[in-house]
What we know:
With 257 residues, the protein is α+β, with helices and mostly antiparallel strands. It has nine helices and seven strands; from the N terminus they run H-H-H-H-H-H-E-E-H-E-E-H-E-E-E-H. Strand 6 (226-230) and strand 7 form a beta hairpin. Helix 2 crosses helix 3 (59-70) and helix 6 packs parallel to helix 7 (154-161). The longest helix has 32 residues, at 2-33.
Amino acid sequence: MAELLHRSDWLTHLVDIALVAFLVYRLVIHLKETTAIRLLLTLPIVLIAYLLAQLSDLRAFQWLLDNFLGSLVVILVVIFQYDIRRAFLSFSRNHLVKRWEPDEDESHAVIEELLAAVEGMAGKRIGALIVVEREVALDNLIAIGTEIDAKVTSELISSIFLPYSPIHDGAVIIQHGKLTKAGCFLPLTQNPEVAKELGTRHRAAIGLTELCDAVVIVVSEESGGVSVVVSGRITRDLDLQALRKVLKRLIESRWLQ
Ligand SMILES: Nc1ncnc2c1ncn2[C@@H]1O[C@H](COP(=O)(O)OP(=O)(O)OP(=O)(O)O)[C@@H](O)[C@H]1O
């Protein structure tokens, strides 16, 4: 009889642990589906509820919140996994790029060449992937294709992405205001929340920017739509004016710091 009781104790603990694990898992999945901002707004509410539970005699509620707060670190790591990975990569000083310091005319010229290339390719529905390096060095994050090291001109970029060009597949890389590489392969995102209709060109742009602070411009071959991707987030269907604004804010402001 004692043995039976002992065994049922063991079973109860197992069911108990399984139940808590299941609830934490469902909670993490649910939180992952909400945005980080919503999560940050939720946290103070949970903390206030916890304080109220401490002051009252709501034991079951206290127990639930105790466990929730105990798992908070794990929950935050799951939710912010891409941001944490990117932060670790950025902290590594070996990866930091020496800043290119152009004057205003040089920097303006590069941005305008990029815009002219994007406008031309979007109009002709030529797919393109253009990566602009910022603080974090890209060379360890990409499979390098062909080394080029040339001035950034719209003609060069457009001719690289022409469908019969031998280096049209993959991405071109802009480093220190120069077009340094073409035909580069980028890591694809594993994020299950990326829109299903986005193919590998867009997923490569998202994947790279989850790991570093680069800015990626994507021209869709299918729709001619232009997107900008930063920090794993994609902004789609930008017109030329909007793209100019974004590039000035994200790239030129860094060059001219
Ligand atoms: N890992 C990668 N790194 C860089 N470029 C890639 C990668 N994977 C695919 N590409 C590029 O994307 C092209 C295929 O694009 P695909 O049609 O699958 O994507 P998409 O996001 O639907 O783009 P589009 O809207 O232009 O069709 C390939 O020919 C190649 O040039």
